[in-house]
Amino acid sequence: MDLLKKAWQKDTHSFQQVSENEIYRMIHKRSSSIVKWILIISILEFVFWNVISVMYLGDSYIRKKYGNEIFEYIREINTIYNIINYTVVAVFIYLFYRNYKRISATKSTKQLMSDILKTRKTVIYYVWFNIVFFVVGTLVILYVQLNYDSKFASLMQRIHNDTGYMVLCKSLGIVFAFMLLIVIAIWLFYKLIYGILLGKLSKNYKELQKIDL
Amino acid sequence: MSENLEQSFVKQLKENQNIIHKICRLYTNGEDAHNDLFQEITIQLWKAFPKFRGESKFSTWAYRVALNTAITLYRKSTRSVATISYEGQKHFLSQEDYNFEEEEQIKLMYQAVHQLNDIEKALVFLYLEDKDYTEISETLGISEVNARVKMNRIKGKLKKILNP
Lengths: 213, 164
Fold this sequence. Notes:
The complex is a heterodimer of chains A (213) and B (164).
Chain A: H1 2-10, H2 20-27, H3 34-57, H4 59-66, H5 71-102, H6 109-148, H7 153-160, H8 165-211
Helix pairs in contact in A: 3-5, 3-6, 5-6, 6-8
Chain B: H1 2-15, H2 17-27, H3 31-48, H4 58-73, H5 100-113, H6 118-128, H7 133-140, H8 144-162
Helix pairs in contact in B: 2-3, 2-4, 2-6, 3-4, 6-8, 7-8
């Protein structure tokens, strides 16, 4: 090993040397680092989920989907919804930006890795928040529909008469199955992105952690 | 001012480029990948250069950024395709330094190190560069004692690979 060390240190002429001009050219090229990809994907996610929630909560969409009858109710819920949504988005963007700014190649390897993972986690939490928000929202609207929409009144009547009980169970079952399917799809999608983007990093991070155990 | 910064960076990088070449050779196979990683490390070094205040040597600082890039930040760009084993890689050696035995040894060494994982490679690299365990532990972010223990284990592993 010591012999090798000496040989290694002498081994300085064995590489094709890069000229100053080439270095100049290199520093003006764009990086293709993983951090850049994380930033792009994270911004896309923020945009995507925001577009979804704006579409889902827009006035005209609500009127079309639910009709005039319960429009006022839904709009009230909607206002609360929007306030929560925008507050949370602002907080998440701030947290994301703070974590992102912390990433620096001059830190120790372990610190760098943990900073990158933290930044990604912020986005993941944001996505989970959206899923929970989506599920809760759907349930609240369902509740409003069942209680205030005349289209559902006959169904409610039948439930009170005990004959519609099965119908209610069935429709609730379909709603839950549908939501579960969406959550699973999103979860799988994230597993995939995570695997491609951070597989190597997580493996190396675990390796470093193992050394310090 | 920024022109000066650029000049001083390019000059120092040119003088210290062998550090980066060695890391590239450890972490890649083939010339294309080598050059691609070299470029990414250069970009990362340049991006971090304004923070470099000359408290430490340029090379010490470069070790950290270069290893971080190789282990963590670097993603193979799509243009690197075929992997050529490095035996087929061009090897430039100035005539007066040519020493067949040492050359062979280094070649075997690289072969052995290629079988280690990314973190182990980093430890071996810093060890071969004659860094002390304080610096190794600070660069990787692990404790000094554990760096020593791990290094001993890697040495054993390398010995097994080299003399089966």
